[in-house]
């Protein structure tokens, strides 16, 4: 017999057909109504049992969390809350679940508790909705780039370079922490290590993507990225997924256009194709809002916010303009910011970014032309000699979601920058080659996938939008 799925049957009008479903019991009421979920949709299907005709020993095993197979007839439902239901003719218990031990009870659990049970939290409506949307967004990313002439490029995960120059890397070594071989200077002898040199997990696939853009024209990476920064915030992970397009012959304006069009496109995709999961999360947030003081409540519902972002232009503002706004704003003058903005050149903190987006402009903002000394070595120096062609996209509730730039394509300027920052030129010989052989203007950016998923699902903590989060002091599962 063909196995059906819940999503398909809930939208079917093919009544009286014989169907078979396999899934997990969400609830079993009055020895009669099983709410069954198989992951195909946020919605459960109601299966109506005739307990007089069903073996009691089987009914006893129909508990929350048990895996069962249901055979029956699809009928129009007379009850409230569903259009169809199944009149059950046969139940098979495939895997029991002891109700006294099963952690995911049909009640509200805290996200902290669910994080400790990350292997089971996917069985809740909230996490299944979030992870279905994560999967849909991932598809939308590949769809967008493929339809726009990009090639997917797999950047290496183990690398010898520090793309961001921030030194926040996880080392990769087979030397072990005890009896490490040392050289004559008493330093670790990496020539004895697996790769014969110092290596680490990548912090960004950008440098390698640049080499591919200089032949394939338009490429993008979408892969795991690792940062050993000790940031215990709701926006940072030690292992996250980053999407990095890189385009030959694009300048910074083209780069901003691409970032805006790309983000709007993937958001529109899920709004159009995943209404049920979004409606569930929208409702969750509305309920959560009601428990907050009025000042902290959202002005828009989740779906309104997504449509607003997809339909309105992002505001483009130079770093210099942003500093003027911040220097003169109320929270700065009243010393409400933790970091007071006094001078041009200050690095912007999340509180400043969020002020600009949430209070001042009230829409996504692209900040550009940052001071050279607070940005990475590869960004193109402007004619003023003090700013670089950098851009950050800032989102409401999230802060920075994208960081990117036009790259420094001039060999002499790039070499000078590398030397000023004491970066070993020899390590980047292959990167510098792209500036020697057919160099050209080019640009790209990195979008933190989990921050996008956070924005789309309205989840407050980044640990709740990736299946098994890795954060300082935590690598369970
Ligand atoms: O601004 P970042 O550091 O830029 C780069 O890595 C560039 N190489 C990208 C490029 O131009 N190809 O990081 C890009 C984005 C951030 O805007 C943020 O969304 C995300 O990556 N990100 C993190 N997400 C989760 N946890 C972390 N620890 C993150 N660090 C950065």
Short description:
This protein has 477 residues and is α+β, with helices and mostly antiparallel strands. Helices cover 31% and strands 22% of the residues. The strands form 3 sheets. Strands 6-10-11-16-15-14-13-12 form an 8-stranded mixed β-sheet, with helices on both faces. A 5-stranded mixed beta barrel has the order 1-2-3-5-4. Strands 7-9-8 form a 3-stranded antiparallel β-sheet, with no helix packed on it.
Outline the low-pLDDT stretches.
Answer: none
Radius of gyration: 27 Å
Q: Give the number of helices.
A: 14
On the 0-100 scale, what is the average pLDDT?
95
| Secondary-structure-derived class | alpha+beta
CATH fold category name of the largest domain:
BirA Bifunctional Protein, domain 2
Strand content: 15-25%
Based on the coordinates given, report the CATH architecture of the largest domain: 2-Layer Sandwich
Percent helix, as a range, is 25-40%
Main sheet characteristics: 8 strands, mixed
> Largest beta sheet: what is the strand line-up?
6-10-11-16-15-14-13-12
Q: What small molecules does the structure contain?
A: 4-amino-1,4-dioxobutan-2-aminium adenosine-5'-monophosphate
- Tally of distinct domains: 2
CATH superfamily of the largest domain: Bira Bifunctional Protein, Domain 2
Q: Which CATH C-level class of the largest domain is it?
A: Alpha Beta
- Total strand count, please? 16
Query: Which overall shape is indicated by the principal axes computed on the Cα atoms?
Result: globular
Distance between the termini: 36 Å
Order of helices and strands: HEEEHEEHHEEEEHEEHHHEHHHEEEHHEH
């Amino acid at each position: 017999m063909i196995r059906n799925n819940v999503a398909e049957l809930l939208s079917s009008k093919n009544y009286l057909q014989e169907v078979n479903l396999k899934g997990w019991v969400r609830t079993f009421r009055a020895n009669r109504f099983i709410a069954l979920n198989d992951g195909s949709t946020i919605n459960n299907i109601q299966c109506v049992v005739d307990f007089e005709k069903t073996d009691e020993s089987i009914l006893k095993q129909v508990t929350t969390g048990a895996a069962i197979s249901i055979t029956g007839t699809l009928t129009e439902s007379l009850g409230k809350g569903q259009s169809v239901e199944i009149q059950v003719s046969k139940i098979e218990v495939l895997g029991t679940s002891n109700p006294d031990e099963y952690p995911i009870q049909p009640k509200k659990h805290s996200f902290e508790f669910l994080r400790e049970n990350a292997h089971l939290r996917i069985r809740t409506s909230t996490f299944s909705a979030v992870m279905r949307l994560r999967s849909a967004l991932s598809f939308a990313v590949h769809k967008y780039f493929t339809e726009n002439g990009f090639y997917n490029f797999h950047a290496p995960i183990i690398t010898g370079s520090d793309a961001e120059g921030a030194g926040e890397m996880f080392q990769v070594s087979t030397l072990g922490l005890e009896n490490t071989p040392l050289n004559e200077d008493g330093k670790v002898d990496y020539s004895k290590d697996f790769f014969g040199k110092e290596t680490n997990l990548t912090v960004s696939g950008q440098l390698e993507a640049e080499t591919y853009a200089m032949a394939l024209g338009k490429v993008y990476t979408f892969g795991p990225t690792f940062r050993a920064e000790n940031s215990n915030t709701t926006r940072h992970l030690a292992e996250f997924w980053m999407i990095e397009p890189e385009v030959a012959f694009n300048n910074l304006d083209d780069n901003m256009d691409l970032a805006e069009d790309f983000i709007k496109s993937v958001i529109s995709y899920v709004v159009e194709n995943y209404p049920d999961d979004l409606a569930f999360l929208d409702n969750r947030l509305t309920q959560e809002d009601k428990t907050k003081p009025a000042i902290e409540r959202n002005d828009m519902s989740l779906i309104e916010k997504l449509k607003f972002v997809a339909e309105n232009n992002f505001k483009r503002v130079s770093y210099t303009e942003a500093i003027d706004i911040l220097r003169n704003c109320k929270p700065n003058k009243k010393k409400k910011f933790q970091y007071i903005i006094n001078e041009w050149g200050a690095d912007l903190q999340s509180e400043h970014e969020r002020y600009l987006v949430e209070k001042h402009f009230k829409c996504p903002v692209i900040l550009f032309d940052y001071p050279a000394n607070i940005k990475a070595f590869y960004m193109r120096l402007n004619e003023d000699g003090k700013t670089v062609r950098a851009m950050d996209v800032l989102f409401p509730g999230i802060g920075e979601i994208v960081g990117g730039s036009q790259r420094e394509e001039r060999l002499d300027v790039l070499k000078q920058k590398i030397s000023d920052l004491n970066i070993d030129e020899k390590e980047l010989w292959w990167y510098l080659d792209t500036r020697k052989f057919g160099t050209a203007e080019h640009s790209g950016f990195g979008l933190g996938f989990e921050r996008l998923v956070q924005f789309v699902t309205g989840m407050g903590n980044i640990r709740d939008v990736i299946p098994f989060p890795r954060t300082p002091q935590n690598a369970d599962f």
